[in-house]
Amino acid sequence: MEQDHPLVRDVFPELVTELAALLEDEGERELAVRAWDLRLVDECGCGDDFCQSIRTADHPRGQPYGPGHRCVPLSPSNGMLILDIVDGRIMYVEILDRPPMRRRERAP
Q: For the whole model, what pTM was predicted?
């Protein structure tokens, strides 16, 4: 169930703030608003030291997204951020060649 996954803003708040601003800059206002409610479904797990990509929706690994899919490359000051969007929903955030993201510590 989707609510079982933490909100990305609770785990990586700086990432969500940056995504929302960059999406606004690209004229993607609706996606910028939706960025605040992304869920951290899974981390990429590829093992590459330059990759910190995250899955933000359930989708079978290795399967194409199909109709309604588009890529939205953003222009961050460091590295690359590329979003996979399906029918207006952010499915995957590709995060490459960037400084390590800091996880927000959970309150005790």
A: 0.91
Q: How much is the mean pLDDT over the chain?
A: 94
Amino acid occupying residue 72: V
Mapping DSSP onto H, E and C, the string for the chain reads CHHHCCEHHHHCHHHHHHHHHHHHHCCCHHHHHHHCCCECCEECCCCCCCECCEECCCCCCCCCCCCCEEEEECCCCCCEEEEEEECCEEEEEEEECCCCCCCCCCCC
Residue in 38, 10, 12, 7 with CA at minimum distance from that of residue 103 = 12
Q: Residue 105, exposed/middle/buried by CB under 10 A (0-12, 13-18, 19+)?
A: exposed
